[in-house]
Amino acid sequence: MCLFSGLSRVGYQVRSAMWRACLRGGVLAAGAVLALSSVAQVSAPGVTQALKETKLSLTVAGRIDGVLVKEGQPVQKGQILLYLDRTAEELEVQRRRLLLQDVARLNELREKEKVLSEQVSSLKSLLASGGVSRKQAEDEELALGAVSSERKALESSKQREQVELNLAIEAYERRHLRAPITGIVTKLVPRAGESIGAHEPMVHVVNVSRVRFLGNVQSQLSAALKVGNKVTIKLGLDASAQSREARIVFVSPVTDPASGLVEVIAEFDNKDGSVRPGITGRMVF
């Protein structure tokens, strides 16, 4: 408000000039207030997702022989969730292991090779002094060579048996479905006794200890967002909405041509499991 009390003797032009200046100052002040009021928090709508979520299947077909978990059950990484009929594969592993463990003939050849090697060394000394004939020494050397060749062939055979045992174990393991992550079983499709095909989804496991928020922001605003920036995630639309501090891990370099939006992803810890994946909200920055 502009007051000019005590200016009754001031000319009309002077008073008009002062009034115009006052008005200009008021307009500038009002503009500053409007500019400040227009500065508000910018937000990007989006939805939460579990950082680790898997849909599990087997690479082989068969009949389910056992289901060891149920929906809602916590599981550890590497834990067996279910298995197919595995009798044939188990027997094949046992057979291959027994073949590999049978080293009686190999040990016999090694002992025989050791004895013959000592005899050949002794005969060479006697041959130099004329104690034995060259024919005797050559015969012993030939016998040593034959035993050594058989021993090497048997050792190579044992190496092949080890590879075959590993293959049998791998075939046996493929009949088992293990959890690749620590989490909770959220969906269990098959039941014991049912037949399933290869690569058919059977179990869903999710880990909610860390959650990511997928938001979309206007392209002109995305330039200010950088990986590593801290943002606030507000989940829900009512007054009791949860708030979590998160950190941006991805800002898409591409703008969606249809919507003009840029995808932004932020992650935050959720060790208490209070935030359920699938909740909508907004990312405030």
TrEMBL record:
<dbReference type="InterPro" id="IPR058625">
    <property type="entry name" value="MdtA-like_BSH"/>
</dbReference>
<dbReference type="GO" id="GO:0015562">
    <property type="term" value="F:efflux transmembrane transporter activity"/>
</dbReference>
<protein>
    <recommendedName>
        <fullName>Multidrug resistance protein MdtA-like barrel-sandwich hybrid domain-containing protein</fullName>
    </recommendedName>
</protein>
<dbReference type="InterPro" id="IPR006143">
    <property type="entry name" value="RND_pump_MFP"/>
</dbReference>
<feature type="domain" description="Multidrug resistance protein MdtA-like barrel-sandwich hybrid">
    <location>
        <begin position="60"/>
        <end position="205"/>
    </location>
</feature>
<comment type="similarity">
    <text>Belongs to the membrane fusion protein (MFP) (TC 8.A.1) family.</text>
</comment>
<dbReference type="GO" id="GO:1990281">
    <property type="term" value="C:efflux pump complex"/>
</dbReference>
<feature type="signal peptide">
    <location>
        <begin position="1"/>
        <end position="40"/>
    </location>
</feature>
<dbReference type="Pfam" id="PF25917">
    <property type="entry name" value="BSH_RND"/>
</dbReference>
<keyword id="KW-0732">Signal</keyword>
